[in-house]
From TrEMBL:
Belongs to the NAD(P)-dependent epimerase/dehydratase family. It comes from Marivibrio halodurans. Pathway: Bacterial outer membrane biogenesis; LPS O-antigen biosynthesis. Gene3D superfamilies: NAD(P)-binding Rossmann-like Domain. This is NAD(P)-dependent oxidoreductase. Residues 24-284 form the NAD-dependent epimerase/dehydratase domain.
Amino acid sequence: MTDTPPVTDIPYDSLKPKLSGQRILLIGGAGFIGHNLALGLSAMGAEVAIADNLMVNSLIENSFESKRDLVQRQAYQHFLLSRFELLREAGVRLINCDARHLADLGRVFEDVRPTKVVHLAAIASAVDAKKEPGLTFDLQLITLRNALELVRPRIDAINQVMFLSSSTVYGDFEGDTVDETTFPRPEGIYANAKFMGERLVRTYRTQYGVGTTVIRPSALYGERCISRRVSQAFVENALTGKPLLLEGGGDGRLDFTYIEDLVQGMVRALALHDAPEKSSTYNITFGNARTIAELAAIVKDVVPGAILEERPRAMDKPIRGTLSIERASRELGFKPDWPLETGYRRYCEWYVDAWERAKRQLERN
């Protein structure tokens, strides 16, 4: 008799048979996380389709934003067009759809006939969400309601709904580390909308038998992001002579996570969802919080002219830390590959090259 290896010993590539032939629909999947996930799933043999109205951080918004620096505009346009080119080369379908409209999304479901659905639609920034709470609710909750309502009569064909939540649902950390059993205490529009999404997904699990997975990422960074997260803002500020602001000396801690690690964890969670009625929640992060000062030090090493400037800590600054990935490691075999020293350095070096390429393109024009 052959012993079955524990999940922690299952190599990533061995999951391909579990995803090959699966039809996976990514709602709001043309963004930073979504297009990277689509590429990862396609490489594993899944048939991937994206439904997105290209409204947030879009090519049109970027092209006509009057406040954009010319180099920044050129670089962002390249990032966005590169997303489309990579998706097309990978055979991923991109369907222009406004998921806030049930009929519009319904037509996509009829066309794609998904076996798994991943909900990613959202405003990517908590700061932007605070400015536009109505739009935040529409993009994060109305689209989710529509997706769940379209899944509900199809649970015999759709074995899993994955919802991308956020580490912000935990609120201020009371200790250095939180895990999935920590009671959420979300603050602000963005975090509360994410938590409401989690509750809605779990309600459809208990009421209607929808198989569900909730993913909580943290402090993401990686190629082709234009959401101005701190990891992107720091390297871009360094390249444009703007200071890298270190509040409280930069002692704030975040569980910085490279996009490739997040994709690995999400792909594992999709591949290993082995029962339609299963419901799981996973922290998918690097699993080790680092300080903002450490982040800035890597930027300074890659861009020596970077200006570091200390500021008093804002009173309302959230208190974060490490998200335990023990459950994801045990149940999914998730092991992140990219610590800050290698992952963020790789990203910074890529950003410098992309910025210089944008400059040269403008000079030629």
